[in-house]
User: Fold CopG family transcriptional regulator from [Ruminococcus] torques.
Amino acid sequence: MAKMGRPKSDVIKDKIVTIRMSAEEHQKLRDYSEKHQQTITETLKEGVNLLYKTRD
Assistant:
């Protein structure tokens, strides 16, 4: 019988980043994520990618 479960990904995501933010910053992040129907993680990754593309 074959193993059951989630298939292995080609990209291993084993890095964890922790940040501290004010209540106001956190609320802005949550509001943006909800408005655009994405998770906080997706929002942060999108932000990093935009910074990377627009800055040297």
